[in-house]
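To whoever is covering the structure queue this week,

Two jobs came back overnight. Logging them here so there's a record in the thread.

Job A:
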Amino acid sequence: MAANIEESVIEKLRGLPVEKQQQVLEFVENLTAPVAPNKDDRSIWEVIREITADVPDEEWAKLPTDGAEQHDHYLYGSPKK
């Protein structure tokens, strides 16, 4: 199957003008370029602390204390268990 796809792509590529072939080449080079590693060495908890740092204590107090246990109730309105 991969050979059929490759042949089909090459056939269509040959029918394109040179300018379009250049665009296809740039696109493929972009697809195959190595992905730069993430330089963010923070843990997920550090990221969460940063995101939530400005939330006032009174807003945290409004959250249900049984949210994990009763998540279906809070998300979907199911009866509490």
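Job B:
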Amino acid sequence: MTVEIPDKLYFKIGEVAALLKVKTHVLRYWETEFSVLQPVKSRANQRLYRRKDVETALLIKDLLYRQGFTIAGARKKISSEMNVSYRSESDMPTAEQVLKKVKTDLLRIQQRLRGNSLSE
């Protein structure tokens, strides 16, 4: 199941539902069942999904609909995959490493935005 995710920072719940071909209430339900799926909320209390949230929702849909996992089984699978990344405290990135990554990401976004404004 390959879905082309548009290159943008935030997606409204309707956009994510259309990408995944599920109803919006399904996404809201998944938010209650999967702690990794937590879109930010705008000032108007509207859900705003980041790319990471869309990818997580795609994974959840694949586990539930294609692979036949139960909600509990999918939750366990996702949490075990996340725990593989950091098996111990020493494997976790330091605050300095996280900040360096954030800075790199922000600089890349800034360059992308400057490139877009030049082409307009």
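Note for Job B: The radius of gyration is 17 Å.

Please reply-all if you pick these up so we don't duplicate work.
Q.
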